[in-house]
Write a structure and sequence with these properties.
mainly alpha; globular
Length: about 280
């Protein structure tokens, strides 16, 4: 369901691309240390947004370095590390585990169960450190399963469920900024869920899988769906602009005002071409 909250790389400066990639590599590096090598296969660039947002808000001290990795063995890659990079690594691991287990329970996908098994030794520690966030992930996945089983025809219900999940992930600590971060995450989560439903509409129809836009029985209507997304992202950015962000603000702006739309329209065009 993730994969939409990424930067429009072509609009970034060389320095911004380096920083964006450095945070991704930093999260990947921490997932290796904090979870497992195989856990890194689940890493999404959406986690870079989570880390960047918290870094811009709280401005922690950073550690940097270079590394070689199996994916890019001939290149020296920059990595960035701080407490929010490590937080993003833990949240990616938790999200991946619960999602993989949901795939196993729903579809009996052996590959999902085997990969989830590689997280089981580290998950209790993550749940202990972040009980609120992990509880939100587990609760959201459970509620989404119930809505899917009931073929819920109202996209607001599953979208809001996912929004509440992302709202909890964006709140690192309960402080002055927590209510605003929750609202940013809530509306961003609604955007992600509905964008994913739109892109998957035809594939879900072929596979007879739940999709809220299919359950509405109003037919394929990209113009209408984009109106929903514009509203969700408008509310997200209205709260986002209330945060006192300076560091990496231009990079975050790129993601929310350009990257999400480039991703959605690109994925949507590809989905229509393939069917």
């Amino acid at each position: 369901m993730f994969g939409f909250v990424t930067a429009c790389i072509g609009e970034l400066s060389k320095e911004q691309r380096s920083r964006y990639g450095g945070i991704y590599c930093g999260i990947c590096r921490q997932m290796k240390y904090r979870a497992s090598q195989s856990a890194r296969l689940t890493l999404s660039y959406d986690m870079v947004f989570l880390s960047l947002l918290l870094m811009s808000l709280y401005e922690p001290e950073e550690e940097q370095g270079v590394l070689h990795c199996a994916v890019h063995p001939l290149r020296r890659l920059n990595w960035i590390d701080n407490e929010y990079v490590r937080y993003a690594a833990d949240m990616n691991t938790a999200l991946a585990y619960y999602n993989l287990m949901d795939d196993w329970q729903d579809d009996r996908k052996l590959s999902a169960r085997l990969l989830a098994g590689s997280f089981e030794d580290v998950l209790p520690a993550i749940e202990q450190r972040y009980s609120r966030q992990c509880g939100a992930i587990a609760g959201c996945i459970r509620q989404l399963r119930e809505l899917e089983q009931g073929n819920c025809p109202n996209p607001d219900e599953p979208a809001s469920c996912f929004g509440r999940l992302l709202g909890e992930l964006l709140v690192y600590r309960e402080d002055l900024w927590a209510p605003t971060l929750r609202q940013v995450g809530f509306h961003l989560g609604r955007f992600i869920y509905m964008a994913d439903a739109a892109v998957d509409y035809r594939a879900d129809a072929r596979k007879h899988k739940y999709n809220p836009f299919l359950a509405m029985e109003t037919g394929e209507d990209w113009a209408r769906w984009e109106e929903y997304l514009v509203l969700a992202m408008g509310r997200c950015t209205a709260y986002y602009e209330k945060l006192p962000l300076v560091q990496d603000k231009a990079l975050l702006d790129n993601i929310l005002y350009s990257g999400v739309w480039v991703n959605f329209r690109g994925k949507g065009a590809k989905a229509r071409e393939e069917t």
